[in-house]
Amino acid sequence: MTDSDFPAGTREARFFARPMRMSDIDFVVKNEKAAYPFPWSRRIFTDCIRAGYQCWVMANKKTIVAHGVLSVAIGESHLLTLCVHPSVQREGYGRKVLSLLLERAKNLKAEVCFLEVRRSNIGAISLYESMGFSVVSERKNYYPNGGNNEDALIMTCEFG
Q1: So where are the chain's domains?
Q2: Would the pTM count as exceeding 0.85?
Q3: HEC profile for 45-71?
Q4: How far apart are CA 97 and CA 100, in angstroms?
Q5: pLDDT digits (tens, 9 = 90+) for 47-82
Q6: Domain 3-158 maps to which CATH number in 3.90.1300.10, 3.40.630.30, 3.20.20.30, 1.10.1040.10?
Q7: CA torsion sign, 84 to 85 to 86 to 89?
Q8: Distances (CA, A) of 14 to 11, 61, 88
Q9: Which of 156, 148, 159 is nearest to 38 (CA)?
Q10: pLDDT tens profile 102-142
Q11: DSSP string of the chain?
């Protein structure tokens, strides 16, 4: 998606956070495909919504620019995905979705949040560190990468 893919007036329109709906999944998958070489499928998002995970989007009446999915259970939370369409990255939408998800985790009595991130994803690592996450370990060959899998950093943030 490029600027021309956004409906007229979308760039100037205000985006707000709301729970992801089944009717959002086509937009969400389109954003995933634009942002990632190995995107999540429609079925994964459907399963996450049905499982009751915290699935949120940044949207306006015309489009969705960011989404995130978080699971919460027994005092722990796990950020499963956070995606911002490439044409609006570095405009604060990822930070807004992440802040919302972390607040939801705290409200659901989670004491910690875990996530995995590609070692090469410097922008995401920087965002996570600025939000209080730190690297605690790594997973070798975790992410598919067209033949040579890429390591993941495991990051965690404890809620005070």
Answers
A1: 3-158
A2: yes
A3: HHHHHHHCCEEEEEECCCCEEEEEEEE
A4: 5
A5: 999 999 999 999 998 899 999 999 999 999 999 999
A6: 3.40.630.30
A7: negative
A8: 8, 9, 13
A9: 148
A10: 999 999 999 999 999 999 999 999 999 999 999 999 999 88
A11: --GGGSPTTTTTSPPEEEE--GGGHHHHHHHHHHH-SSPPPHHHHHHHHHHT-EEEEEE-SS-EEEEEEEEEETTEEEEEEEEE-GGGTTSSHHHHHHHHHHHHHHHTT--EEEEEEETT-HHHHHHHHHTT-EEEEEEEEEE--TTS-EEEEEEEEE--
User: Scanning the structure block, which residue is given the tokens 């807004």?
Assistant: 96
